[in-house]
């Protein structure tokens, strides 16, 4: 029996850790938590005081936060992985940039736009609504431009930067509906990543039955921005 257990909240960023484990073929146990009805259930707080996912348990270790978990898994279970190029690799600077662009710029912009979108107290013409929308547009345009230059964010190879980025263009759109069709490079990119066998296994195990928003949904909603 595997010593590593992942606590996964459905329709959440913890799908990244599930996908990571599948990409690396690391044995693990999976405990699934359902939203209650939208937020994380009390069962997660019983495991870690933060009360959010992902959380891993490995022996006596209980660890939260996606990047902390990612670095722990890579260091302990896959030190020679191909998802993190070494500093000597020419793609290393691009890898670092797009990894942290996703985590520190793109995803917060998506989240801010989502909260603003659902707040009826903010007028449509208010700066508090228009600024997050413009910021998100700018960031998406940067990704679209980059993917017109290379197959993956860091270059020609799939890396951890891509694994972290995909959430913003797929599952997060179940909360913030927007249309990918104006961004053909992103659509092609999403198709490449969601077609990976490890991703499909991860989604089937963690979010079985949840449609994968791969950019080609029939009747897709108009962009909210």
TrEMBL record:
InterPro entries: Glutathione-S-Trfase_C-like (IPR010987), Glutathione-S-Trfase_C_sf (IPR036282), Glutathione_S-Trfase (IPR040079), Glutathione_S-Trfase_N (IPR004045), GST_C (IPR004046), Thioredoxin-like_sf (IPR036249)
GST C-terminal domain residues: 88-225
SUPFAM superfamilies from the UniProt entry: GST C-terminal domain-like (SSF47616), Thioredoxin-like (SSF52833)
Domain of life (superkingdom): Eukaryota
Domain GST N-terminal as annotated: residue spans: 1-81
Pfam family name, one: GST_N_2
Residues passing through the membrane, by range: none
Name of the protein in its database record: Glutathione S-transferase
